[in-house]
Amino acid sequence: MSRPHRSEPSSRGLIGQIIDHRWDYLYVLPALGVMMLVIAYPIYYTFYLSFFRTPPSLAMSEKIFNGFDNYATVLGSDSFQQVTWNTIVWTVWSTFFALILGLGAALVLNREFMGRGLLRGLLLIPFVISAVAASYIWRWIYHSDFGVLGAVLFDLGLIDGKLNLLDNIDMVLPSLIVVNVWKEFPFAMIMILAGLQTVPDQLLNAARVDGAGAFHRFWHVTLPHLKGVLIITVLLLFVQNLNHFIIPWIMTGGGPAGASDIWITQIYQIAFGRIRFGIASAYSVILFLVMVVIGYFYVKALTGDEDRQAH
Amino acid sequence: MDKRRITRWHVFGWIFLVFLLIYAVTPLLWMLITSFKSQFAALQYPPDLYPKNPTTEQYVRLLSPQNDVGRQFLRYLLNSIMVSTVTTILGVAVAVPAAYAFSRFRFPGRKALFFSVLFRNMFPAVVFLMPLFIMMRWMGLVNTYSSLVITYLTFGLPLSIWLLKGFYDNIPVQLEQAARIDGCTRFQAFYLIVMPLSAPGIIATAIYSFITAWNEYVYALTFLNDDQKLTLPVGLQRFFTEYATNWPGLMAASFIMSVPVVAMFLILQKYFVRALTEGAVKA
């Protein structure tokens, strides 16, 4: 019969082992069942649909097989290059700034002082509130006629005239990145804070006794211990940003003139704006393939973690 | 060791923290300040940095069932509460046994299963959106709360299982073994020993599911189009298109929408932070 924590390898074959453990599967069955229905099937269906021309009525019995036409349409479209470039800019800079701010905040909050818990709580609020609410709050702050940011910058003499961010082709993407970083740097902060707990005090003290300055202690003691957490945090942020939909969608809808359009908003627009499920599916598959490459590193980073805690 | 000595790194750290605090908190303050202005007062240039004649008219309007706006808003609020609560309860019920199995049992395929669980995090929501939309249409679930509950439940599961597994890993297996020796069945050992010990983990996971469901937008936007069924995030957008210049109203609605999740989060911050970081830092 099955026992918890068997460590010796079973002498029976795979089938035998599966039979041995048949009751264990019962525990994961509900989770697996739901996930097969809602995750596995849709992935398969997206691949399948990407080879068809779908009717606007979405009556799927009338779809027509068209091979790789949808892929050609996506890759050959005028906007593809710009949207891809926007996606890269959006994802890389959002990840970079969220990580830097999160790391800085974690390092400062890692020492004991009065009101630390309160500060951490305040810094975490942007992370918990709804991205839709956040988008409207920032839209109001950025408002070109009545926005508080424009008024403050004007008073400081940094701009003359109205502040135009969301209708400005050059400024729109950086402005959205500011909102996105605002929303997700707290996540990096708590991940890194937790990672800092694992840095042994003795090691830092030893380095201090040996005369290492604050920067050297950080570079040679703290940072190597943080490596694992940093890798996972970067990957999680990266994936999250690549998939982020709400902020560009609510704040600009991809405009002006596609200047803040990224893959995900583009796909949504093609699918539910123009009702072209086939093309949107092909687009999704391309995005999916990019994800698989990133996912490979993600799983590798996580398994590395799992091996280190091996029993 | 002179921990109290002030170095220039400390000074730099404090300056950084002050800037970060301004960045993080001012937008929230501005939301709150705006929500207490009248519609007329909000559309002034330059804007008043505090409401000269603070008014709660927006809150009263949103929360009283006497008028159309209030009725609509309360409806959205109720929908959100309902969808989030059902999702949370079902999610925990499914995640607990799965996480326990992943933590304790060594069945073949355990590792592959676990990573397939995690793998879901890699997929963009839109990959699922179209097939799920077709599927929901086919099952007649478009415009129902069930469509959202099923979707949120599934998409919450991988992380819920991951969080809970971290908690179960920390509970010594000897406790269960002792209970088994004393005559408990495996299920009893799980129910009587492990469940109570993992209560903080379950609470944290439940909070996480609730907040995720509460804030979810894309699926709600796509699956629901009946005005009576909308959840708050989509409802907020509907409000914006209808009353485009009523920024104080929009800010008040945003504030009301944020209160439950922020309150829950701050009260249970300790568990939540622990749960969220548990898996990532174990080395």
What attributes characterize this protein structure?
heterodimer, A: 311 residues, mainly alpha, MetI-like fold, 2 domains, two-stranded antiparallel sheet, 13 helices, 69% helix, disordered C terminus, B: 283 residues
Please tell me about this protein's structure.
The complex is a heterodimer of chains A (311) and B (283). Chain A is mainly alpha-helical and 311 residues long. Chain A is built from 13 helices and two strands. In chain A, helix 2 packs antiparallel against helix 13 (277-308), helix 4 packs parallel to helix 8 (172-196) and helix 8 (172-196) crosses helix 10. The two termini of chain A are 22 Å apart. Mean pLDDT of chain A is 85; it is low at 1-10 and 307-311. Chain B has a single domain (58-281), classed as MetI-like (MetI-like fold), CATH 1.10.3720. Chain B has 14 helices and no strands. Chain B has helices spanning 8-35, 39-42, 57-63, 68-104, 110-119, 125-138, 145-169, 173-181, 186-197, 199-215, 218-223, 232-242, 247-267, 269-281. In chain B, helix 3 (57-63) packs across helix 4 (68-104), helix 5 (110-119) packs across helix 7 (145-169) and helix 12 (232-242) runs antiparallel to helix 13. Chain B is globular. Chains A and B meet through helix 1, helix 2, helix 4, helix 5 and helix 6 of A and helix 1, helix 4, helix 5, helix 6 and helix 7 of B.
